[in-house]
């Protein structure tokens, strides 16, 4: 059984101007020790998916339908108190912007001790300090003893993200959700943090959901990739087949937007034409069709149904047509 | 922290000096001398007084003498009550104003912060709309309007509380309430806005994602940080309450410094006006400094700047 | 899925959509409205803000037109009609020398509004210019200009205003002068910080790169973009200025008799609170209504200008 199974998740935002279906019927699963990458442009619903799993969607948003089965239990049925026991301890999360993820008025040590006091194995204060130091070492922070008494603003962005990762793994969670953890960082720091994330995932064998808008970032890390567009899943598959043989026109476009080392200098980077859809009144049928070079009449009329093989799922009428399910077209 | 305080202290000293200097020169701009009254003072006495207060000296010397007096805490005599100095008046009446002000400040901060937090946590619900409506209502009512209305309703009509005068704790309720309502409303609105801002911050989301209890996130993460901007209002708050006390003390006939101040304005008792102005300015500037230090204590980013 | 295979057999469904027929993403994005159109749309939805605006218009009408059509001059004493309770001839009653309170309150409202207008002008002219220059010049100039503001900020302004009034003597012009000295401070700070933030923005940089002159940059780019917070601050500061005038008049430093401001009317009324409470009540209500109207409008403007609330 999968560690996490999300079925038909629907999280809507009830705004002034209308209802935004930020996540509109998304299903996926993550096994123990598996790394799932969720890829999409901003506004595709990937972060809202993560916040829905944590059950931290803020007003005016609300998860209105679906199931989130974690280790056999539907998180959506838990009380707030019961859900709190899951957060941090069984499911942890790292956010995009390390500059604002730590409370500026508390020391890094306070953040860590506060969390470690929930670990029943650490009885004395010294146990907790030792564990905090061990954790900071594990994420590559030098002089951890001294660092504990410092405030967040005394850390660089990369260092803060390391602290966030230390906090996330402190209670040995089964699932770690990382929401664009490298986006706000410098490129060199990005690479270091990715190395750290990989190392930690292998060491603790955690399941990871890694959210990014950049397919290139997770190429060497994820086991499987799910591509989202405008609140819907458009394609899912193992990382090799997605990269080798992207089927959905949107995935293809995303991949051609990633620069490659072997690219000819004269070759231009491909930019996806058009802009992301207005989420209050999304295009009918396939939400990508206004930007799709292969759009057919059916694409504007009907929501695509799943096409694909055991390990692959694509929501695209073109792929559907090419599979030859419907005779004569 | 040290450098921060030194900088603030320097600012405070300069501000005080500006006040004293402005006061001095304004005093000398007063049309006619301080002894040109409706009832002329006999020439001999006038000369005597002028000598006593160095009015015959050149301006710069008078200024230096004045500065010297003030540094030594001597705020001068009263012309209206020649047997009393401004220091006497302050010593006698300021404790009354301070007591009244203390309760008003306490009430405004306590009620304001509680109301603001509750509103923020129930954003958009009935209790939020309700308290924010009353907040804007009380902001629109100056204390000199609230005070007589309270006096009329609770004193004259209902006889629940004394109409005026000073003595028991019962006498304090209406004036303290009149002074506190406006600032309470301001603090409630400020706390609410600041709380909403903090609650939408990533570190609050991150703390919740770590599974900290709602109460813990509220107090350690939200309230503490939300109060930082509220502290910056503490100085204007204290200033508002003390200047508000000028009229409220008059309306309730309370023997505080504010009432003396306003009476001396009516009587054009210049030395008292000047002396009390300098005293109030010094007091409020000191409060400003305390508010700044509190601010620095709450926010480590400023402390180490 | 509720799609039947039969439905999919229609061959026309599988033809490519010509480029021009695509339901373009661009056309489907939210209807394009101008910035101020959008602000107005949200302002209109705020019931209290609209109420404030209506109140303001009514108060303005009463203050400007009311005294002209009133049958009683503001200073006409009528010893046959002393301390009358509100009645048909005198809707707010009469005072201790038989003057019509309604007319006097309308005159007082005029003064209050004039003070509010002056405060707005001082903020808009001195405050915006001072803050704008300080923020735009930066460096030493900014440093010195802001130190001056810091020092003035540390001074309890009302005390100096009181002192100024004592020295200058009561009178409307003197109130204008005394208030004008200080009412730009907060605005200068706000405008400066706005300019500092905006200076870092891309579009200003872009204009710079394109060789826009400093003056043009200030007038065409920076100031219009800092307008939002400026308008809100002005609106919310107007009641403060009105309160200050009322307060000064209350302690006998405001306009002189027989002219009346709402503050001096309320102050006069306090003495009669047992026998003729309307003398206190109506001026007080008038002050509160004016302040309430500005506060409602200011709050509404702030909410509709706040980009974070744009959804």
Task: Describe the 3D structure.
The complex is a heterotrimer of chains A (329), B (305) and C (311). Chain A has 329 residues and is α/β, with parallel strands linked by helices. Chain A is built from eleven helices and twelve strands. In chain A, the strands form two sheets. An eight-stranded mixed beta sheet of chain A has the order 6-7-8-3-9-10-12-11, with helices on both faces. Chain A has a four-stranded antiparallel beta sheet with strand order 2-1-4-5. In chain A, a hairpin with a 4-residue loop joins strand 1 (4-14) and strand 2 (19-30). In chain A, helix 3 packs across helix 4 and helix 4 crosses helix 6 (157-169). Chain B is mostly helical and 305 residues long. Chain C is mostly helical and 311 residues long. Chains in contact: A-B, A-C, B-C.
Biggest interface, chains and residue tallies? B-C, 46 and 43 residues
**What is the percentage of strand-forming residues of chain A?**
15-25%
Helix content of chain A: 25-40%
Order of helices and strands of chain A: EEEHEEHEHHHHEHEHEEHHEEH
Uncertain residue ranges of chain A: none
Class derived from helix and strand content of chain A = alpha/beta
In which order are the strands of the major sheet of chain A placed?
Answer: 6-7-8-3-9-10-12-11
Q: Given the structure, what is the number of helices of chain A? A: 11
Distinct helical segment count of chain B: 12
The residue-averaged pLDDT of chain A reads: 86
Topology of chain B as a string of helices (H) and strands (E)? HHHHHHHHHHHH
Helix and strand topology:
The complex is a heterotrimer of chains A (329), B (305) and C (311).
Chain A: E1 4-14, E2 19-30, E3 35-39, H1 46-54, E4 61-70, E5 73-74, H2 80-86, E6 91-94, H3 108-116, H4 125-138, H5 144-147, H6 157-169, E7 175-179, H7 187-204, E8 207-212, H8 215-218, E9 224-229, E10 232-238, H9 239-244, H10 249-256, E11 306-307, E12 312-315, H11 317-323
Parallel strand pairs in A: 3-8, 3-9, 6-7, 7-8
Antiparallel strand pairs in A: 1-2, 1-4, 4-5, 9-10, 10-12, 11-12
Helix pairs in contact in A: 3-4, 4-6, 6-7
Chain B: H1 2-29, H2 43-52, H3 59-71, H4 86-121, H5 126-139, H6 143-157, H7 169-199, H8 202-209, H9 214-251, H10 257-266, H11 270-298, H12 300-303
Helix pairs in contact in B: 1-3, 1-11, 4-5, 4-7, 4-9, 5-7, 6-7, 6-9, 7-9, 8-9, 9-10, 9-11, 10-11
Chain C: H1 25-28, H2 35-45, H3 47-69, H4 101-137, H5 139-154, H6 157-168, H7 172-182, H8 185-199, H9 202-209, H10 214-225, H11 227-250, H12 262-270, H13 278-305
């Amino acid at each position: 059984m999968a560690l996490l199974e999300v079925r038909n998740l629907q999280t809507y935002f009830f705004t002034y101007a209308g209802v935004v279906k930020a996540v509109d019927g998304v299903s996926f699963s993550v096994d123990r020790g598996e790394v799932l990458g969720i890829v999409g442009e901003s506004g595709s619903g990937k972060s809202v998916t993560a916040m829905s799993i944590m059950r931290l969607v803020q007003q005016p948003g609300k998860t209105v339908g679906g199931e989130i089965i974690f280790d056999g239990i539907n998180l959506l049925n838990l009380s707030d108190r019961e859900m709190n026991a899951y957060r941090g301890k069984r499911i942890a999360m790292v956010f995009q912007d390390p500059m604002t993820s730590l409370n500026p008025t508390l020391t890094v040590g306070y953040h860590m001790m506060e969390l470690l006091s929930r670990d029943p194995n650490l009885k004395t204060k010294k146990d907790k300090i030792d564990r905090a130091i061990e954790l900071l070492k594990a994420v590559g922070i030098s002089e951890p003893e001294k660092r504990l008494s410092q405030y967040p603003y005394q850390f660089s962005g990369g260092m803060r993200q390391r602290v966030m990762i230390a906090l996330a793994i402190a209670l040995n969670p089964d699932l770690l959700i990382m929401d664009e953890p490298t986006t706000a960082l410098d490129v060199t720091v990005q690479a270091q943090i990715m190395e750290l994330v990989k190392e930690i995932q292998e060491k603790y064998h955690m399941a990871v959901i890694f959210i990014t808008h950049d397919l290139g970032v997770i190429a060497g890390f994820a086991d499987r990739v799910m591509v989202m567009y405008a609140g819907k899943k458009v394609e899912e598959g193992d990382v090799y087949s997605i990269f080798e043989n992207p089927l959905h026109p949107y995935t293809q476009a995303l991949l051609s937007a990633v620069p490659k080392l072997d690219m000819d200098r004269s070759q231009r980077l491909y930019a996806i034409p058009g802009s992301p859809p207005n989420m209050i009144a999304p295009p009918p049928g396939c939400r990508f069709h206004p930007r799709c070079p292969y759009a057919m009449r059916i694409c504007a009329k009907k929501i695509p149904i799943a096409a694909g093989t055991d390990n692959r799922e694509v929501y695209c009428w073109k792929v559907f047509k090419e599979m030859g399910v419907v005779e004569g077209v | 922290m040290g450098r921060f305080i030194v900088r603030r202290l320097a600012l405070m000293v300069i501000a005080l000096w500006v006040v004293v200097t402005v006061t001095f020169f304004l005093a000398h701009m007063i049309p006619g001398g301080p002894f040109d009254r409706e009832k002329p003072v006999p020439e001999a006495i006038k000369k005597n007084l002028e000598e006593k207060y160095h009015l015959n000296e050149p301006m710069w010397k008078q200024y230096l003498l004045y500065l010297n007096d003030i540094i030594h805490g001597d705020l001068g005599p009263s012309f209206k009550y020649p047997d009393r100095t401004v220091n006497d008046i302050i010593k006698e009446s300021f404790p009354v104003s301070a007591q009244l002000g203390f309760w008003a400040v306490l009430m405004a901060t306590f009620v304001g912060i509680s109301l603001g937090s509750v509103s923020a946590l129930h954003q958009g619900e009935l209790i939020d709309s309700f308290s924010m409506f009353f907040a804007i209502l009380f902001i629109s009512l100056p204390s000199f309007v609230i005070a007589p209305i309270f006096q009329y309703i609770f004193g004259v009509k209902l006889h629940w509380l004394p109409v005026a005068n000073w003595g028991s704790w019962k006498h304090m309720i209406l004036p303290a309430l009149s002074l506190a309502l406006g600032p309470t409303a301001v603090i409630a609105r400020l706390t609410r806005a600041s709380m909403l801002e903090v609650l939408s911050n990533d570190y609050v989301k991150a703390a919740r994602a770590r599974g900290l209890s709602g109460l813990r996130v509220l107090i350690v993460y939200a309230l503490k940080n939300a109060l930082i901007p509220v502290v910056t209002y503490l100085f204007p708050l204290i200033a508002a309450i003390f200047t508000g006390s000028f009229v409220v003390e008059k309306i309730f006939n309370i023997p505080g410094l504010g009432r003396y101040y306003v009476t001396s304005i009516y009587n054009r008792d210049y030395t008292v006006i000047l002396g009390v102005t300098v005293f109030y300015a010094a007091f409020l500037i000191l409060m400003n400094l305390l508010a700044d230090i509190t601010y620095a204590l709450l926010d480590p980013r400023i402390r180490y700047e | 899925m509720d799609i039947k295979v039969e439905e999919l057999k229609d061959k026309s469904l599988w033809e490519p959509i010509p480029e021009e027929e695509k339901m373009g993403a661009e056309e489907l994005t939210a209807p394009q409205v101008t910035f101020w159109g959008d602000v107005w749309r949200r302002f209109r939805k705020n019931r209290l803000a609209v109420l404030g605006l209506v109140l303001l218009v009514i108060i303005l009408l009463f203050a400007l037109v009311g005294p002209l059509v009133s049958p009683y001059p503001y200073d006409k004493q009528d010893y046959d009609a002393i301390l009358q309770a509100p009645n048909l001839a005198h809707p707010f009653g009469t005072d201790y020398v038989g003057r019509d309170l309604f007319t006097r309150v309308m005159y007082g409202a005029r003064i209050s509004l004039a003070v509010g207008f002056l405060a707005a002008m001082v903020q808009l002219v001195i405050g915006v210019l001072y803050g704008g220059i300080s923020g735009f010049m930066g460096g030493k100039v900014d440093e010195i200009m802001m130190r001056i503001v810091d020092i003035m900020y540390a001074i309890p302004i009302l005390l100096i205003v009181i002192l100024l009034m004592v020295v200058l003597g009561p009178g409307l012009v003197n109130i204008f002068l005394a208030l004008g000295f200080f009412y730009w401070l907060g605005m200068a700070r706000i405008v400066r910080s706005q300019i500092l933030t905006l200076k870092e923005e891309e579009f200003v940089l872009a204009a710079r790169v394109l060789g826009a002159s400093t003056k043009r940059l200030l007038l065409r780019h920076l100031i219009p973009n800092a307008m939002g917070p400026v308008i809100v601050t002005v609106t919310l500061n107007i009641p403060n200025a009105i309160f200050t005038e009322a307060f000064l008049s209350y302690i006998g430093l405001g306009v002189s008799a027989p002219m009346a401001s709402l503050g001096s009317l309320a102050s006069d009324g306090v003495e009669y609170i047992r026998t003729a409470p309307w003398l206190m009540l109506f001026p007080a209500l008038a002050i509160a209504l004016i302040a309430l109207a500005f506060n409602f409008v200011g709050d509404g403007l702030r909410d509709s200008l706040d980009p974070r609330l744009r959804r």
